[in-house]
Structure formats: C-alpha cells, structure tokens
C-alpha cells in the first residue's frame, strides 16, 4: 500500500492550529443560521447515517488500538486512516443535516433528561477539543514523528472514542423525537 509521507514542518503545525479553530467555528456558524437551506428530503436520513458512521468509527478506533498493541503498524495505519476518513464524512454529513433541518428537541422526562444533556454537552465540548488532537496525531504519524504521535494519541484516542460512543448514545436517546 502506497502511503503519504509528510515532512516535518512548522507550516503543518500552523495549519493544524488554524483548522482546529476554524472547523468548530464554521460548524457553529452554519448551525446558528436561522434560515435553513432546502437540500431535499433525503437529508432526513442523515442522523441515522451519522449514527452508523459514529458506530463504525468507534469500532475502527478499538480495532486500530488492538492492531498497534500487537505491533501491526500497517494494519493500525490503515484502520486509523479509515477512522479519520469516516470522521471527516461524519462532519460533512452533520453540517448538511443541520444546514437543512431544524434541530430536534429532546422530549424525554425524568432522570433520563439530565443524563441526556450531560452526554450531549460533554459530547459537543469534547468533539471541539478532539479536532486538534486528531489532526496532530495524524500529522505526526504520517510525518513519522512517532514519539509526538504517541503523545497526541494519549489524549486523542480516549476523547475521540468517547465522542464517537456518546454520539451514538445521544442519537439513540433523541431518535424517537425525529419527525
């Protein structure tokens, strides 16, 4: 398998820092738009697609972890690259859905309500934070800066796994309220 090899460079670190700020800001601005864009009724399925993407991402993260534990670097790289691609697809799908559909209100009552909002808020906050760690982890891996990669992954892996899993849980909790 042909792999991309990036050079060590300050410009990549600057780019990562810019993207780590720009991506959440752009998503927030797009989500904050009052006027929704009519992209068609097909966008109604995107929350379900996103749940599948998050589920597959969580599985790939665990499998990638197991591969690196077994010192299978090539399989680890392929698996983690696939997780990164799925994360990117999720982001596009998420933006398309929220650009074209109103947010769904959670209708649960009782104890499930604070649990839902705790999961939702922690999911959102950590999804913003994890962007920087994941971008750094990918860059360090592809530029063969393995020590730096391990430092980034120490934070990226558990946060990204939490975000992926809580994304599915939040979806399962709110899915009965989709119209």
What's the order of the H and E elements? Answer: HHHHH
Work out the number of β strands. Answer: 0
**Separation, N- and C-terminal Cα atoms:** 44 Å
What share of the residues lie within helices?
over 70%
Shape: globular
The number of helical runs is 5
Mean pLDDT: 92
How many structural units, i.e. domains?
A: 1
Return residue spans where pLDDT drops below 50 for at least 5 consecutive residues.
Answer: none
Q: From the helix content, strand content and strand pairing, which structural class follows?
A: mainly alpha
What's the main sheet like? none
Features:
single chain, about 180 residues, Putative membrane protein YozB, DUF420
Describe the structure.
Keywords: Membrane, Transmembrane, Transmembrane helix. Pfam families: DUF420. This protein has one domain (39-177). Helices cover 75% and strands 0% of the residues. It has helices at residues 10-32, 46-69, 73-100, 112-142, 146-174. The termini are far apart. Helix 2 (46-69) runs antiparallel to helix 3 and helix 4 (112-142) runs antiparallel to helix 5 (146-174). It contains five helices and no strands. With 179 residues, the chain is mostly helical. The longest helix has 31 residues, at 112-142.
Task: Give the gist of this structure.
The chain has helices at 10-32, 46-69, 73-100, 112-142, 146-174. The protein is an all-alpha fold.
